[in-house]
Amino acid sequence: MGVSSGTPSKASKDTLEMILLGPPGAGKGTQAKRLVEHYRIPQISTGDILREAVDAGTPLGDQAHKFMARGELVPDDVIIDIVEERLRQADCAPGWLLDGFPRTLAQAQALDAMIERMRCRLNLVVLLEVSPDEVVARNSFRRSCPVCGATYHLKSRPPREDMVCDECRVALVHREDDKEEVIRRRIGVYMEQTSPLIEFYRAKGLLQSVDGHLTMDEVTREILDLVERARPAENVR
Ligand code: AP5
Questions:
Q1: 67 CB near ligand 1 (under 6 Å)
Q2: 235: pLDDT strictly greater than 60
Q3: What value does the mean pLDDT take over residues 143-161?
Q4: CA 15 to CA 17: how far, in whole Å?
């Protein structure tokens, strides 16, 4: 995908460009943090970028907040520009892991165009499959660290000390969009606007699915296997 004929791609066995796809609470953020540590590439989470903007009270944050609080998507043009700017930063040279982007067909098509312009090569799209009931259960009990972004689950992965981040030692927060009615709206939005991407990437031969109900460690192992099978064997394609 994405490389004009005659143009050398920068894709290599040493680069990794991948997407984590799945409903809210599927474990994208949890797995992304493990994968970026393993492969030493940046995690680009549009949700985290938007939440930071909301917390900082920037114009982007003010614009995004009303959509996020309702469980709806921020407009495509806003988010596409943010991602392109981020992918052009120097730390993305060895690759990147997109978490929460793309989320609409327009975003996926825009990403294709970015990849073409930047002479990258998307290696893999991993779909984490989780049932709607599990999504509600996970997100209702999720608490996050406002400093490092680590996520905990009050039942299955509680912090060592009640409501305090193990690493940063600051109080954990409950996301505004993790109220049950907003979670259900986010599931609906995922089904309507994001699930068509499953077929989009399957048709390109890039999609692999993982059962997101497995334990966190099992999911990580499955994704690592998929990455190793998906990366190009030679340095230049
Ligand atoms: P975003 O932050 O991207 O939210 P999301 O996609 O809804 O995903 P979540 O962060 O809720 O879940 P996750 O899959 O990362 O799961 P996690 O690892 O935390 O987006 C938020 C909002 O921003 C959107 O609604 C939208 O408004 C806006 N936005 C963002 N990107 C956008 C875009 N591209 N376009 C337009 N708008 C955009 O895990 C969840 C819980 O489960 C945790 O408690 C975790 O500990 C636990 N858990 C994880 N894995 C397991 C496991 N295997 N077993 C048991 N528990 C587990």
A1: yes
A2: no
A3: 91
A4: 7
